Amino acid sequence: MSILPYVHNYVQEIQAYKPGKPISETARELHMKPEDIVKLASNENPLGASPRAVQAMQLAAQDVNLYPDGASYELRTKIAQIFGVDFEQTVVGSGSSELIELVCHTCLGPGAELVAARYSFTMYPLMCKLFGAEFVEVENKPDWTHDLQAMLRAITPRTRVVFVTNPTNPVGTMVQQGELDDFMAEVPEHVMVAFDEAYIHFADPQPDTLRYVRAGKNVVVLRTFSKAYGLAGVRAGFAITTSEIAGMLHKVRSPFNMSNLAQTAALAALDDEQHVLNSVSLVRAEMRRYEEAFQTWGVPFVPSQGNFVLVNVGNGQRIFHECLKRGVILRPMDGYGLHEYVRITIGTPEQNDRCLRVLQAALER
Ligand SMILES: Cc1ncc(COP(=O)(O)O)c(C=O)c1O
Description:
The chain is built from 14 helices and 13 strands. By secondary structure, it is α/β, with parallel strands linked by helices. The strands form 3 sheets. A 7-stranded mixed β-sheet has the order 2-8-7-6-5-3-4, sandwiched between helices. Strands 9-10-13-12 form a 4-stranded antiparallel β-sheet, with helices on one face. A two-stranded parallel sheet has the order 1-11.
């Protein structure tokens, strides 16, 4: 007997999150060695993790028979010190994805609305389905940036949270301080504003959103260790917010929501500023190479402040498959209705050489 008739209707309607195609799956399908495949599909850090984080995890592996510190005391203390906030204003979790879910858990339910830009992280509409809330999608401006004024107009008495993804995925555009200040001055007090800053390290300049938290606004700043810190595989992220909101997020998280390996790795990664600087300068230098190639080929792209670039290749699925056959995994954008596009994560110089070669050949075919 199928259990489906007894499962929540909304669960049956959910389209599960579709990640970038994994290397292992591609290797199986194409009968290739995993090491011969280049994955530029999930905005991961091609330099890997900080060696300090890897070493710290090796040591911590001896203690995995013990539950982690459920309060993540050391990590949260360090985050509080670095960002100049109180310990009570911090929350950590298994990637910023978990923190996004916690934010939604605290405030969404039937009748509630979440406002976000059309071209922003796909988790937000998924969360709306999960909590029975309404997703209010706001068109980006013609230059692909968030239209914060339109987002303000989309707020109703039922709006519980607005997500501002800065820089935004999958386009890489940003809204700057002045626009953010104007937006924050107008947001009604009953609305929580979540700044999803997964790619903030790659941006220049980097707007300061912690100022709104310090001013006591109902703001949550979300950060991840998955990108510039190179720890996507351990799942680590954090939120800085008011102690009131942090208290709510702590209530809805599971008791040991961050493994001791993740806590240890994140702590060590915060100490290795050089690794972040190296990662950022690699991305910036290699991004220029992609931009120059696209300009030479006459291929439209969106100038990006992230570690990825959205490029109009005419037929995203065709180019994705052509590149895949040659061992380069890109991200098709059909999920966003961007059928002409692929998104490319910036890799190492060697990975990018290969990607550019394969991509050029695919475009000429
Ligand atoms: C905009 C944005 N926010 C959040 C995340 C979640 O990252 P993680 O859960 O690895 O911290 C991603 C992942 O790609 C993202 O693109």
